[in-house]
Structure formats: structure tokens, C-alpha cells
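Open question from group meeting: does this chain pack into something compact, or does most of it stay loose? Before anyone orders reagents, we agreed to write out a predicted structure and look at it together. Recording both the input and the output here so the notebook holds the full record.
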Amino acid sequence: QVQLVESGGGLVQAGDSLRLSCAASGRTFSSYDMGWFRQAPGKERDFVAAITWSGGRTTYADSVKGRFTISRDKVANTVYLQMNSLTPEDTAVYYCASRYCSYCSYDKWGQGTQVTVSS
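C-alpha cells returned:
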């Protein structure tokens, strides 16, 4: 099983950039893709972006297209989320997750990292 640990969150100003990291341990080769999700206070957890582990194909939520970039380093077993042009609406706890097929549920989750964007 894949174990996931997020890091890189913090407090930034609107317009700033931040890069989140998700360090994975275990059988990453068995993962279909890795995803980033976020949950703002009082809101449901929403999909942000995903990347297939093998081929690096990416998918983004409309709300972050053109601003966020997901990437992975297979040697380092790490997934990144580069976040640019941050707005207060991006404030949330960000989680990474893994799943094992394109239609499976994400069943392994990290502990989350807080991103706060001030205006």
C-alpha cells in the first residue's frame, strides 16, 4: 500500500506562488494515478488535479487550469502541485491521494497540508 505525506503549505498573499509536495512510499508502481484534492472550511472536498503515475498524463479542475501544474518525480516517489496566481478562494487543506485504476475511488490519502491565501 502507498503511504502519502503532504508538505509545503503555508500562508501567502494573493498573487503569490506555492509548491506542494506529496511524498509517497510503498508500491507506487501499482498506482494508476495520484490526485490532489482540497477542502475549504465548511465545504466538501473537491478535485484539483491528477497525474497518471506511469505516463504522466494530467487532468485539472476548471478552477485551476492555467494556474496550477501537477507533476511527478518517479525516482523520488513524489508528486508536486505548483500553484501560481493564488487567490483567497484557493484557501483550503490540500490532500494528495492515490487510486489503482481510472474508474476506481481514491483509497489512500495523506494527512493534508494547509494553504492560506490572504488578500
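Observations to bring back to the group:
The two ends are 40 Å apart (CA to CA).
The CA atoms of residues 61 and 76 lie 25 Å apart.
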